[in-house]
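Exam revision sheet. Question 4 asks you to relate a sequence to its structure. Input first:
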Amino acid sequence: MPPFNISQKLKNHQISARNSLGQNFIFDENILKKIVGFAGDLSKGQILEIGSGPGGLTQAILESGANKLLAVEKDPRFFPILSELEKTFPNKFKVLIQDALKVDLRTVVDSPLKIIANLPYQISTILLMKWLNEEICITNCKSLTLMFQKEVAERIIARPGSKARSRISLKTELFTNAKIVFNIPATCFIPRPKVDSSLLHFEVLSEPRYRFNPVKLDQILTYAFNQKRKMLKSSLKALFSNVSNRLNSVGIIETERPEVVELVKFCDLSLIDE
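Answer key, structure tokens:
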């Protein structure tokens, strides 16, 4: 097997991390294997990895016995390193030099699909929201095992009443069961980021948790959380005539702020007038 030595690989290929791409690489082999372990059985279907970089997590996935792995990496500087792994794991591994935001999960026919990634910080929430907004339940994706900045991870799983509650918390709850499985200190990365990170595991639901109108729900959450400090009767008045009655009809108190409202009530609100 190729050595895991990430620092040496970067040095050999004269590659330094680019802050503009949010590149921070885990160099601890034990942590990389631990991340893969939380993804469960990888012996069937396909694995998708985003932001492979120098291939530390990539190698851990392949060595775990993955059936098939597609690595999507935007930075072409890493192609020679990843190509070495292609040779070591023939017919198991393919590298795609592409922007992950252009990958459509609905085109992946292999099932089950599992996503494992140390996501680049700059696109982590953008990418997660993209997958959720594409109604991930209708794809072959069964789970996501993803790294985020610790504060972002806490926002993603925030429950009603938490000040961290946001649009992404609600969308995550609508389509998945998500939890933080462990935290990783900044000292485990090259280069060292300013904050610690958390690994989240998402179990994708077979169907959305509640019935909802996609367009209307997006409008409601956008208006509500773009003005989090306002009461809902104020932030949503542009969407509904007689907004107080509309809110009360689904059990929302008009003076509440969005972070205290349960997901099901927002979903019910999106169905009014259907």
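Marking note for examiners. The CA atoms of residues 125 and 152 lie 8 Å apart.
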